[in-house]
Amino acid sequence: MASHDSGPADGNTGEPLVVADRYRLHVPLGTGAMGTVWSAFDDFLRRWVAVKLVYLEHALPAETAERMRQRTLREARAVAGISHPNVITLHDVVTSDGEPCIVMELLPARNLAGLIADLGPLSVPQVATVADAVAAALEAAEAAGVTHRDVKPGNVLVCRDGRAKLTDFGIAAHATDATRDSGHLLLGSPAYMAPEVASGHGAGPEADLWGLGATMFAALSGHPPYDEADDAMATVRAVAHDPVPRLPDGPLSDIVTALMRKDPGLRPGPPEVRQALAAHRAAPGAQLFPESLFPRTGVAPDGAPESAEPPGDVPGDARPAGGAHAGATPDFQQEAVAAPERAAPLAADPGPLPFGGRDTVRTGGPATSIALAVTAVLLFCLSASAGTAATRWAAGAEIVPATVLGGGADDGSTGEYAYRYGSRTGNAGSTSGAGAAPFTVPVPQGWTTFVSRHDFRELPASTRTEYVSGDGVAVITVERFPDYFDHYELDDYLDELDTEVHRGGIELGTREGVDPPEGTEAATAVRYRVPAGGDHEAHVPRRTTTAHLARSGTEMWLVGVTVPTRDEDAGHRILTERVAPGFTVLG
């Protein structure tokens, strides 16, 4: 078994880093946009725990940093309000260097998504047993006034003994609006999101029940109910508009169909779900999944040396009784606890931080903008005032009358589409882990930011930053492809865009050389149209993107504006007169 470091060390003493004079960090379990989850040993209670450390870049605006701290506290408060064996247990909330840290239960578990990836479709007893546990967790959450808002296989932990727990309450709502109706809305994972959420409405407990049904669908079929070739926007539209997929007839198909009814009021509640599952659950004590998929013993994180003592001078009888099985799959390391899979924005002020030494920054109302770093999956964060409209844009619904977009003005004019621009600074390396890639770009005030990583079949993964207008009509995009020109040319990007992203539906228009943005060497302007969602249905408006593709060393940068096709000339003016002249690559 490969060796691992014993954890972060204090720069002065060389000893393992200790948080709050109590929790000795051991090995990292997962890293996300807001921090890292570590396995740690509790020196006081002599047990292993998981510690989520929040890290905030020094360059973050104070208001943004404060919102991220509040998100951490909101996650803690959501979990703390639920006491149930099928929900990850919160042990403590402490500080490290003035930032909040969450101390949680540490499990020798796999997440359900990893098990599905390893095993393919699961058996009826496996699915029924895990689904019963999730339904019980949702029942407890609803009783505590908490809506999870991101129920999916990746957030269901399964232990070797068959126990299952719901985790990652980072976007949960308890008078909190974190999915579509908060200060900055986070749309849950598109493939498992409820249609009402995809259509721009609020998420209640019924949305969690849809998530349970979609999770069961994935477990029984081996794939999510909606998956538009990893195109999150297309998936949102499919959830909102397409017929609900059905499983082949089977023992659990009826309950999945009931949970995935488009009318939230017709979905069965957790007690009904559990009653329907009771006859199909595995017998008590039965081996639910192969032992080879789990660590052999104890609660040591995957990859921890079998002979490892807890960090520091800790008696051997207090350490985990073993390490991970050599054949354990990598997802255990990242998902054995509620790893920070994504950065979720939070709703209205949850109250001051319960720690001294920092003045609370008064945050703006629901329309305040916040930049979010997201790993692997697309997250939609939209302001409360714009959430429904922007979601409806994503879902392909008409939002505003067919009025031509205006280029805007900086003089405070109040025309319907007049924009007051300000400079935004972003980091196009935030999802790659390859260091900073800063840029600045002019963006109308009040537009909301989300950041995502995009994986392509042939091209290198990109970091995409999108700024969405308050009415959901327009989007400004900045995208960076690292090391692109080492192996690819401009035409390769356009080909990939056509064949893989839009499935042959792209209409490539004008293409010409333009002055390169500051910090780049050469640029080409392109304009292309695509049917929203990749289809040609009349009710889905077509979109036009005008973009400048620029070279900076081996990197390719894109800055573009996307609007309804009826407004493509206005979109071109916004790009060429406002956005592109002020776009600068700083790195």
Q: Any descriptors?
A:
587 residues; alpha+beta; Phosphorylase Kinase, domain 1; Protein Transport Mog1p, Chain A; 3 domains; seven-stranded antiparallel β-sheet; six-stranded antiparallel β-sheet; 21% strand; globular; disordered N terminus
- List the total number of helices: 12
Rg, Å, rounded: 24 Å
CATH topology of the largest domain: Protein Transport Mog1p, Chain A
CATH superfamily of the largest domain: Mog1/PsbP, alpha/beta/alpha sandwich
**Major sheet summary line:** 7 strands, antiparallel
The residue ranges in which pLDDT falls below 50 over 5 or more consecutive positions are: 1-7, 174-187, 297-309, 311-417, 533-541
Give the distance, in angstroms, between the N- and C-terminal Cα atoms: 40 Å
Number of DSSP E strands: 19
Round the mean pLDDT to the nearest integer and report it.
71
Estimated helix fraction: 10-25%
Q: What is the strand content? A: 15-25%
Domains counted in the coordinates: how many? 3
Q: Can you tell me the overall shape?
A: globular
CATH architecture of the largest domain: 3-Layer(aba) Sandwich
Class of secondary structure makeup: alpha+beta
GO molecular function, one term: ATP binding
Pfam family, one: Pkinase
Region (Disordered): 293-328
Organism: Haloechinothrix aidingensis
